[in-house]
Amino acid sequence: MPQHILEDRELSIATGSDLTSEGKTIKCGQNSVSGSVSQRACVYCGARVVLNPITDAFHLVHGPIGCASYTWDIRGSLSSDSELFRQSFSTDLKEKDVIFGGVVKLKQAVDEIMARFNPPVVFIYSTCLVGVIGDDVDSVCRESERRYGARFINVKAPGFAGHKALGYKLACEALFELIKPFRDNPKVKGINILGDYNLAGEIWIIKNYFKEVGLKVLSVFTGDSSYESLIKAPTASLNVVQCAGSMTYLAKMMEESFNIPYVKASFFGLEDTASALMKTVDLLGDSKARQKAKSLVEREGRKTHEAVEKYLPLLKGKKAAIFVGGGFKAVSLVRQFKALGLETVLVGTQTGSAEDYELLGELAGPSAVILDDANPAELETFMRQKGADILVGGVKERPLAYKLGVAFCDHNHERKAPLAGFAGVENFAREITLSINSPVWALARASSFLD
Ligand code: SF4
């Protein structure tokens, strides 16, 4: 291992051949190694990522003001209606509240929220400090529900309780609590989409595909969703899970309690988008929808091939590095790079599973470096070693790429152009072509103090 790698991290780093022909497994799904500057977010952030796109919900952070710095601005999911979710609210706990408790402040906040905004649902995020002082937020929620008739859900998410993936689970539990009272409503023909957060309006693109095919989308968890749309979810006949890392837990709960089967499907890349649409119609056994989906896939596939053709000579032989949240997206990205003629030389995730990494090893090839819960030093070391031309990641990876003079593509919350669906394939090809071929990287490398 290169000298910058901590000894305790060695088992979380492998090559494609380790995971395929050598039969090794990668250490993953564990708490971050102490002393390693993990790229992961905390438990509260994981929960907020999933719940924040509910547009008419009130998101109240019960904790010190710092936790409330997580706002819509770093997660640009779009809304077709309410804009309430774009604001950030906090009980702003201070030293005095640590000593005497924060419940009085929380109750005052609830009264103010109901007087001024009267939302149908309030998520109260109990962050690290509340986990330490032990405010009885559950009883405030019960009392507030009796008093105001709206839903109050305590998201017990102290950041120190684990890592981002636990936050996903807590968000799934909160969503399940929200929709559970509607479990006995009669079933209708339609689907729910789980794990799409309507970044850059992507859910509108996907919904249009299903509209053309003749399938009704009842609820989306949680992009561009509202309380009224979410409570229809228990009546659906199929759950389509797009971000498997954050939403498989909810899909399993809904399968067990509401008898709704689920299918994992990715809308990133030509191959995966086509397969997601066909899988969905096949599972519903609707022959008319199948015929329409087939025509849509053929038509859009043809158009997309024509649109990306001009980028291929500019991308041929380039090397890509990927570091994203979940394994499912990483798999789609490796496939997309392959289709565009790039080699994936490094791929890692914050919360991937052993099966995800095995598949990534197979797809990326024997010499690709595979990492779970990487830190910036590791990303830098292997990107340099492998000569990556572009890094695909999120807000935390962006400065690293810029400092190294390597092209960057944001495939996370800050993306401004939709990267999902057939339209997303063209946008992605254009974005990486422009970034990789920009003259700025050579200048950045020439003046970098890192070399
Ligand atoms: S780690 Fe704790 S204090 Fe920091 S943002 Fe997360 S919940 Fe708040």
How would you describe this protein?
Strand 10 (319-324), helix 14 (327-339) and strand 11 form a beta-alpha-beta unit. The chain is built from 19 helices and 14 strands. The mean pLDDT is 95. 45% of the residues lie in helices and 15% in strands. The strands form three sheets. The chain has a six-stranded mixed sheet, with helices on both faces. Strands 3-2-4-5 form a four-stranded parallel sheet. The chain has a four-stranded parallel sheet with strand order 7-6-8-9, sandwiched between helices. The protein has 451 residues and is an alpha/beta fold. Helix 8 (202-213) crosses helix 12 and helix 11 (270-284) runs antiparallel to helix 12. The chain has three domains: 7-34 and 311-446, Nitrogenase molybdenum iron protein domain (Rossmann fold), CATH 3.40.50.1980; 43-178, Nitrogenase molybdenum iron protein domain (Rossmann fold, 3-Layer(aba) Sandwich); 191-306, Rossmann fold (3-Layer(aba) Sandwich). It has helices spanning 16-19, 43-51, 95-100, 103-116, 128-133, 137-148, 164-179, 202-213, 227-230, 244-258, 270-284, 287-308, 312-315, 327-339, 354-364, 376-386, 398-404, 421-436, 440-446; strands at 13-15, 58-62, 89-90, 121-126, 151-156, 191-196, 217-222, 238-241, 262-264, 319-324, 343-349, 369-372, 390-393, 407-410. Iron/sulfur cluster (SF4) binds at residues 42, 44, 63, 66-67, 127-128, 158-159.
